[in-house]
Structure formats: C-alpha cells, structure tokens
Amino acid sequence: MILTQCAVCATELGLTLGKKCGRCSTRYCGPECQVQHWKEGGHDQLCKLIKKAGGAEQYNANTKYTEAVSVAAEACAEDTKGQTCYICTQALHWKTKEGLVRMCACRGTAGFAHVSCLAEQAKILVAEVEESNLDHEAKTERWTRWYTCSLCEQDYHGVVACALGWACWKTYLGRPEEDVVRVLALRQLGNGLHGGDHDKDALSVRMAELAMLRRLGAPEANILAAQSNLALSYRQLGRFEEALRMQQKVYSGSLRLEGEECPKTLVTALNYASSLVHLGGFEEARTLLRKEMPVARRILGESNELTLQMRWNYARALYLNAGATLDELREAETTLKETARTARRVLGAANPAVVGIEHDLRIARDRLAAREGGRDVSSVCDMVAAMTPGGP
C-alpha cells in the first residue's frame, strides 16, 4: 500500500496509522476526516466506483496512469506527428485513443509507440516467464521491457518513464505483498516518478518500499538497492547530507557484499561520488572515480551509460573546484567534450544526461577561457555547482 496520506487533510499516515473505509480502503487519519469526506468530499458518490476498480490503491493507480499517459503523449506530440506505433501500427490507440510517445535513443522513424502498447508488451513477456518458469537471466531480460526500449535498448526517460512506472504498478499491485513481481513493480513506480521529476511522490514510494522490504526480511542486497534509490530522492529534494550518509553506507555495503566489479557496486559508487561533488568533496570524489572508472570501462565498456556518467561527474569534480589548476580545467574540458560526443551518439540528444553533460561542457569551456585570460570565475563556479544536477 503506497497511499500514505489522509484523503482529506493529507496527514502522513505511513503504512499503518489511521483508518480505512470499510468498503474501498480509502485511508483517513481518523473518523472526523472520514465523515467529512463522505458528507462534503464526494466520497459517497465515489466509494462504490473505487471498490469496483479494485480498491483505493488500484483506483488511484489507474487514475494516475491515465493522467501520466496524457502528459507523456502531449509532451511527445510534436516529435511523433505523422508517425505510427511500431507495435500496433496505428497512430491513435484503437481503444484508449491515446497519442504516441518516444523518449529513448531511437532515431528517424523508429521507436514510436503507445504507452499502452509498451505496457501490454511488457506484461505479456513477464507472464511468459512466469508460465514457463524460465531462469533468472531470462526473467531479468524480460522485466527490462518495463523501462527499456526493445529497439535501441536504452532506458526511457522523463514523462514516458513516469507513465510506464504507473503502468507497471497498476498491473501488479493486486498481488500479495511478498510477491517478487509486485516488489519490482513498486520499485519501478519509484524510478518512474523520479524520472518524471515527481520527487516528493518518488520519496514516498521509496520509503514505503524500504519499510516493506525490512518487514518481509528481504536479503541485504535488496535493502541496499532500496536505500540507494531513496538516497537519490533525498538528493533531488535538496537533502544532500542525508543522501550522502546513506550513499556512503550503501557503497560500503555493496563493496563488501557484491565486490568491486559488480555493476551494482559501480552504480553505488557513482551515486556516492555525485553527492560528494554536490557538497564540495571534490578531492574525495576524484579519488573514488579514478578508482572506479577503469573498472567500469573493463566490465561495462566505454560507451555504457554508467561509464559515461562516471566520466561526467569526474569532470565536474575537476572544474567546479575553485582551486582547480589550469591543467585540471583542461582535463575537465577534454573529458566533457569526449563524453558528450559519445553520450549523444549512444543515448540521443534529448536524454537528460546528454543535456547535462553538454551544459557542463559549455560552463567548463567558459571557465577555462577565463582562467587562460586571467579572470577570477570562482563565483560562477559556485553558481553552477548549485544549479547543475550532475549524476544519475
């Protein structure tokens, strides 16, 4: 259950406080709000409809999904004009009448689809895995369809990722709490909300996920993954110190549990380094990334998004430092230029990481030119550090 607020006054209820409507499970902080909602808030008209939809959680997910699909289609309308879905071959979805989306690395006429078609495709693939009892590798590959384009094999981002997060959650939320697929769906919802910049909602979902995993006695690796995602939400909401403390613990735990060559450890290293950069720990971030970047290149390759993200944050740790030497500024500019070129080719120009890398490249070039011209740009550097997101 991720509806964690009173439906009337929005008081935080967590997962256990308050009370529920006996018919549809809508949550309240107490009887006063429940009565008010029935008499004045329209719940008397909605209660049966919510129950028919499967309860408050399902009704909420269905509603949020519909809203997210509309937002995604509108955001992609200009890019998708005159195109058809590569899955159903129609411009408008035959049933929902929704428009097309595309927020991946596909180019030209490839990759246009309806969120409903992408969701149905993923749902079918996951069902086949469960019915055929396929191995873990096959399960993982099929599950990626909930967030990765099957054509360019790059992750969806922005409002499309958000819509697919709601699609995934509404599909599996009715399963038992301990069901692995339901746990993954909750995580996917959190990731989608994060991708769509709904950071407060993402935080709520990720806190609910962590609490659930602890209650279920989940393996330490799963707890670490949930904490890593939660730390990202803290950082997006400006709670940098909390994010840094948690990411440091997650990185240490992953290093101990998985080893330094595990991709999961590399992700936690990147997140930790990015938070260090945010808080001005430039030397510590550089030291960490100098250690991890060769591992990422060897394990994942030069063009992998994680490797590119590491190089991006390494360059930021160089040029954002007010005490950077001229050689360090030149290294930062060169690193960003090479990273931007590769990232644009691999991820596409609209990817948020590409936009961020190219933004930092422009600022780094300005700072290098100013230093070569003998000007003090430390105040500009401080401003950029405060503005630029950096990292995943």
UniProtKB/TrEMBL annotation:
Residues 6-47 form the MYND-type domain. The keyword Ubl conjugation does not apply. GO terms for molecular function: zinc ion binding. It comes from the Eukaryota. InterPro entries: NLR-like, TPR-like_helical_dom_sf, Znf_MYND, Znf_RING/FYVE/PHD. Pfam families: TPR_12, zf-MYND. Transmembrane segments: none annotated. Keywords: Metal-binding, Zinc, Zinc-finger. PANTHER family: AAA+ ATPASE DOMAIN-CONTAINING PROTEIN-RELATED, ATP/GTP-BINDING PROTEIN-RELATED. This is MYND-type domain-containing protein. The lineage of its organism: Eukaryota, Sar, Stramenopiles, Ochrophyta, Pelagophyceae.
